[in-house]
Design a protein that fits this description.
The protein is an alpha+beta fold. It has a single domain, classed as Alpha-Beta Plaits (2-Layer Sandwich), CATH 3.30.70.141. It has a 4-stranded antiparallel sheet. The longest helix is centred in the N-terminal third of the chain and has 11 residues.
Length: about 140
């Protein structure tokens, strides 16, 4: 089933020069880039994106991190794209992520973990509408 999902290459991925390597992993798997934009976000955009986490203790440092520099927002499309992206990304904590995954190979952090991928079809639709309203269903 062809799906679309939102991916964020977080500020640490941009700062470390890993955008090309990470994008190539998605493309090598067979996913297509539908939209991509380098941007810097503010606290309001972070709050909208992470709305379910705003009241959690871990959120203020996460907001500070994602607003700290440029990130790359993209929409990927392909067969089971949501599940495929999450598998490629690996566990949230890069220290525990399996080798061969983006986080397992390239991250040593739980917060600065390089990538975000939508966690389901519903969140993908919400996040795509937030980041790329022209692509909203």
């Amino acid at each position: 089933m062809t799906q679309r999902t939102l991916v964020l290459l977080k500020p640490d991925a941009v700062q470390r020069g890993l955008v090309g390597e990470i994008l190539s992993r998605y493309e090598a798997k067979g996913l297509s880039v539908v939209a991509m934009e380098l941007r810097t976000i503010d606290a309001a955009q972070s709050d909208r994106h992470y709305a379910e986490h705003v009241e959690r203790d871990f959120y203020p440092p996460l907001r500070e991190f994602v607003t700290s520099g440029p990130l790359v927002a993209l929409v990927l499309e392909g067969d089971s794209a949501v599940e495929v992206v999450r598998a490629l990304n690996g566990a949230t904590d890069g220290r525990k992520a399996a080798p061969g995954t983006i986080r397992g190979d390239l991250s040593l952090s739980n917060r600065e973990n390089l990538v975000h991928g939508s966690d389901g079809l519903e969140s993908a639709a919400r996040e795509i509408a937030l980041w790329f309203p022209e692509l909203a269903d």
